[in-house]
Structure to design on (171 residues):
């Protein structure tokens, strides 16, 4: 999205082969998708801002979605070629709170946790404290009211796809 919108990436999201931040969107795109060195950093970015935790989370995702599922992951089972299947793995886990507590208690406590978080002192008084799902619900409301913004570069790519498929472009 940063490339499509011609906006610099936040420092620490993508690094070059020497581990230095890459913020120019075209260069960052190449480090992520075309170059063997450098690339996207784990969740959290650099260690100083919690990157080691993101690294641990990324490894756990690889273990559950790759190794456990018998799918390809990282460099241990590289994708062979463009015509070969990707062998993408998935991991799903369902937890029934009733296995731990009487029905409804978990939901009640979770509602209290969310209320406490929403009521926490704000770092910026003009910005609310958010919990998981809050930004998405706000974006959903905005999109329902104003529509989905499409960057000009993406619109051109969509037009090109429609033209190459010889179908009308109706967006």
């Amino acid at each position: 999205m940063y490339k499509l919108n011609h906006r610099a990436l936040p420092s620490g999201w993508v690094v070059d082969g020497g581990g230095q931040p890459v913020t120019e969107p075209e260069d960052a795109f190449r480090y992520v998708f075309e170059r063997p060195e450098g690339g996207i950093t784990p969740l959290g970015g650099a260690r100083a801002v919690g990157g080691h935790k993101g690294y641990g989370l990324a490894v756990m995702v690889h273990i559950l979605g790759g190794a456990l599922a018998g799918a390809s992951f990282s460099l241990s089972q590289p994708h062979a070629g463009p015509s070969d299947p990707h062998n993408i793995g998935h991991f799903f886990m369902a937890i029934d709170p009733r296995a731990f507590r009487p029905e409804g208690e978990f939901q009640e406590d979770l509602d209290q946790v969310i209320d406490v978080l929403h009521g926490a002192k704000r770092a910026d008084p003009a910005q609310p404290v958010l919990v998981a799902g809050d930004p998405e619900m706000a974006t959903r409301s905005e999109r329902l009211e104003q529509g989905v913004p499409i960057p000009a570069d993406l619109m051109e790519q969509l037009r090109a796809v429609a033209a190459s498929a010889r179908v009308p472009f109706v967006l």
Remarks:
- DSSP finds five helices and two strands in the chain.
- Residues 51-67 form the longest helix (17 residues).
